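Service request form, structural biology core

Requester: graduate student, group of Dr. S.
Request type: structure prediction, single chain
Budget code: on file
Notes: please return the result as structure tokens.

Sequence provided:
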Amino acid sequence: MRRLHTPRGANGEGERSWPRWDGVARGLIGVLTWAALCLILLGYDLFPGRVSLQVGEVSSALVRAPRMARYVDDDATKRLRDEAESRVPPQYSPLPYARADVETRVSQDFAALREAKAAAKSPDDLRAKVAWLSTRGAEWLFQNPVSALSQLEEEARAVVREAMLKEIREGTADLKAARDAAEEAARARVSHPGAAVVSAVAKRQTAVNRRLDTVLTLAAKEDARNRVQEVVRTVDADQAIIFEGERVTREHLDMLRAVGLASPKLDYRKLVSVLLIVGLIVLLLGLHVRHWAPAVYGRTAWLVLLSSLAVASLFTVNLLALALPNVWMLIVPAAALMAAALLADTIAMALALALSLLVGLMANAGLPATLLSLGSAATALAFSTQLWPLSRLRVVIGALAGANLVLVAAVGMMAAQQPAILMREAILAGLYAPGAAVLALGGIYALQRPFGITTHLGLLELLNPQAPLLKRLQAEAPGTYHHSMMVASLSEAAAEAIEADALLTRVGALYHDIGKLYRPTFFAENQALLGLDNVHDHLSSSLSSLIIVSHVKDGVALARKHRLSPEVVDIIEQHHGSTTVSYFYQQALSGSRPEDVSEDQFRYPGPLPGTKEAALVMLADGVHAAAKSIASPTPQRVQQMVKELVRERVLGRRQLERCDLTFGEVTIAEEVMNRVLTASLCRTRIAYPEPVERGVGM
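Core staff response, request fulfilled:
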């Protein structure tokens, strides 16, 4: 099914320049659309079925999960990360000059010992000058020459150097253990009493060579936290989340948010992000419509329709999201099909993409919902031309059902859904296909007339013989009705041959002469059937011509009164173009004052046909009217008549200049009309024999 109505413009594509007030109206529509979509997304908890609970409250009812969902257990994740962080030991960095500094201090201690020995008068005096030296060491030093200290200094330096090879961490027991070890090592290296001097210096100067590094410690703790993966838990469909009378915990709230039963916490960051993202989506949708469908962009009513489809679809999805799993696979394809039939295919795809992104913004819907929604809508649009006739609807339903099954299965396996739940959701998604098709057809039928849009569904209504105007035409102007039926057959066959819109052509042909209902007795095809004389025998040629010409204007008025589609009205208005009423024009020229006759007095006001369909109705109308004048029709005469009339319309009066009918298509249409007329007018029948009277005795 496709949208039929195209606003008039230079090329039938609509104008690209619009009045300033139209720009204001479009801006207002965009702002209102943005505001409505934001309210729907931000007002999630206002929709039925949502649960409003806080930690510590007592649940008043049993709450079950409407669908499977995964969520991150923040408390468990934090607990595991805290444990990993606590297991990280403090980190120490080496002091680069610790060993050199220790050896320097060893030399300083022995220098102090030499100075003290030189000035000391007794061991006690020596110990008083060097307080850290033991009594035994002081006695040995006082009794031995200063030269003995050189050997001890080398031993002390070796002991300290060996002690500093190990890690001695600041703030730990490492320092005490290292000093005790240095003291023992000094006693082991020196066998005489001078070992007391070496052990005192070694123990005193052994120092820390690793200092606590807070930066490294923090980095190690952060790395340990990061290595702990998030704890992801699964809520199965129909799982009891919280029982009646149970006190709400943070874990309950996490599960409720995961399945979309509790509105997410709204803060300024979420508010700003939703406002910006929705604004960008609406802006891009508007720019897409302006670039790819300027005719739609130029009509405020059609922009309102597009906005209404977007807002109503998202509202419905939000309303039914808890009741039906993956409900976006029902609503978004239906909205896309409606947009394709009522507006344009490119707009339908843009709307499907916008709605899929908005669905992903809903609470906990995310990427899977966007993929399912967009995939289903794209499939529906790929088969949108099969919505009409209704016998082809099974193609749309079958393709959409198959695609939905595959999409749900693929996304479900990616999310590791349980097989039973996956099968249930896949079957339901398949059932969404006929639902989406029916919903789309209902929406198209309901919206086409209020927004002045013509679709094949609307045209099918006009084909009904019980339609008011056709019923009147049969009763009040039977000759005109028969003529219209023939014109419809001729033009429809030609439209099918050149791949024009055959349905629109047929409907336009059926209604092209409804203006004759105002004065049916003034038209020759009705006079004989109604048993009337030709009223034009008593009228002047100019008056008769005026009456004949007026049936176009009367037809347009009658069509608009009955709210026929704009395309049909155009065909009624254009089916005579600017041709003349030749019979009365020739009659006027043969009168007493031919010099006073102007051809313009006998000319139809136009306009010329602007579409292929209107041009075909014009040709079929003229061909059938001319064919009735052939006294003894033969295939050759019919062919010659059709050829001359088509040539006269195309080349003589140049009636097809405004439509996009090519010469090749005109030739094909001519051949088709000739074939249909020949079959209708040149039929031969076998004569039936006279009935034989039988005798009484027979």
